[in-house]
Amino acid sequence: MKKILILILPFFLNGCLYFNDRGLDNRYYNDCKEYYDGMGIYHKECDENVIEYQNIKDGVKNLVKR
Fold it and tell me: Which of 13, 46, 51, 58 could make a disulfide contact with 24, Cβ separation 3.0–4.6 Å?
């Protein structure tokens, strides 16, 4: 039963999730807002992905430390 679920799951998620430059999301491109504030400092605010590559890296580092 587990094997069947593992084989079928990618077909359901095939059209829903995309790999972009920051992680795994339901949109191919990130919707980031880029702007300069009044002092001329650059800001970039992006919506969170379903899975962030940075979170995976941090989790692996924590496992290696133990």
Answer: 51
Q: Does residue 2 lie in a domain region?
A: no
Domain assignment present for 10: no
For residue 43, the cross-strand partners are 35
* Exposure on the CB side of residue 42, measured as CA atoms within 13 A: 3
Closest residue by Cα to residue 31 from 21, 42, 17, 45: 45
Residue 47 lies in a domain: yes
Structural domains of the chain, count = 1
The verdict on residue 54 lying in a domain is: yes
pLDDT digits (tens, 9 = 90+) for 16-66: 778 888 888 888 887 889 999 999 999 999 888 888 888 888 888 888 887
